[in-house]
Structure formats: C-alpha cells, structure tokens
Amino acid sequence: MRTPMIAGNWKMNTTVTEAVELVREMHHGIHSQRQTESVVCPANICLQDLEAGLDAISGVEKVICPPFVSLAAVREIIKGSSIKLGAQNLYFEEKGAYTGEISPLMLKELCDFVIIGHSERRRYFHETGDIVNRKIKAAQKAKLKPIVCIGESLEENEAGNTEQVLSGQLEAALAEIKGIGDLTVAYEPIWAIGTGRAASGEIANQTIGFIRRTLARLYNDKTAQKTRILYGGSVTPDNTVELMDQPEIDGALVGGASLKSPDFLSIVKMAAEIKG
User: Fold this and answer.
1) pTM to 2 decimals?
2) Which residues are the active-site residues?
C-alpha cells in the first residue's frame, strides 16, 4: 500500500509573519468567526471537519513547503505533530562559494522533503535534466526525500508528445540512480499550473499510469508499485474527489489552494477519506 500524500507548495508567497499565521490556522484548525465567515465547504466537507486541523487527519502524509526564510519558524510550530516540512529547492553542492544558494546540509536539520525540478525552476532558472539529476543525488545523500516534478507544456500535449516528454524527463532525472528509495514523483502538466485548467481525473490517471510503467521499465515493477506519484496543477477542493478517486493517483502537490487554510484542510480531509 502506498501512503497518500498531500503537499502544499507555497512558492514565493508569504512573509515569515504570514507563514506563521497560515501554518497555525492549518495546524490548529478553523475556529474564529473571521475565518468561518468566508469558508465555503465543498463536496462532503463541513465546517466541523476543519476544526481539528491537519494534525488530527490520519491516513495521509501532510507536507508543507514554505519559502526558505520561513522553514525554521514553521518547524517550531509543527514540532511534535504529524505534519511534515519540505523545502522548495536545493543546490547540489554541500558548501562553497555559491552565493544565494541553499545546500542539502542546511536543509537536513530543518525538513524531511524537498521539491526538485519544478517546471518553474526549469523555465525561469534554466534547470536541465542533468541539474535535476544532480540535485536528486545530493538530496538522497543528505537523507532528504525528493519530490521530483515532471510535466509537459501545452504545445507538447497538443502535439501528442506527452509520453515522450515525460519519459525523457524521468530518464534524465534518474540517470545513474540505482535505487529511488523514498522519492516521490509529481506529475504537473505545465498547462495546468496556476491556470485553473486542471487535467481531468481520467487523463491524469492515464498519464500517471504511464509514468508508473516507465518506472517499471527503468527499475522493476516492485519499485514502480511502491513509488508514490502525485498530481499537481490547479488542484482545488472542487476537483479533489475526482482526482483522488483515481487508482494511480497517490495524492497531490497543491499550489494556490495551499495558501488558503480552509481549502488545504479540505483537500487533505477528502484525500484521507478516499485514499487513507
């Protein structure tokens, strides 16, 4: 059995003060009148389901990935809870003259997970498959658990090249890595990220099934079956049930909705009820 995961990628959002307030709401639940006035409970989620907070939700691994500057503050708030902490990136060297970079040794005392190869890193910071590969190796050496992102552009999707692109990205990311261990794959179609245009549950399931078959080809069926593969790209409380109902999808990497405590709590709650 693969333990489902819901991970929140906050990207370059929230100051330290805002991050602390947000994670406290998520951790302790929705209680105040100010919060409840704006809460719209989707699907079968009611307000009382959000009152206990993330720590009370079992059956799903919960990961929060705030900006680097907030990792230490957030870690103090969730210490001793079932909520896990992740970073959004790392550099592949342990130390040295790399101004502005964050090494795996700096992160290993703060968090358990690290996102690697997000399409925004590939697009804006020109990260290649080789760089993603080196970062995975560095993370694994530091005992950090990588969440490795792959995904195709709209043009690649419409040209029917999705499988070719994804297999190429996986092969480059995992080159010379003999065992993937606790690595998680996140399928994030670029055309769905932040656009409100999520892949349908059926299409996401089919694509993730292909990713799992690719892992079986690169390693073996046992490795493929034990590896968690998440979906990411405009995940909201409104489409969570459709996505989590799919057998190949093991959870979600959530972007914008992870910046709203009621939405993120709702997504985690629904995932736990369906997958847990």
Assistant:
1) 0.93
2) 118, 188
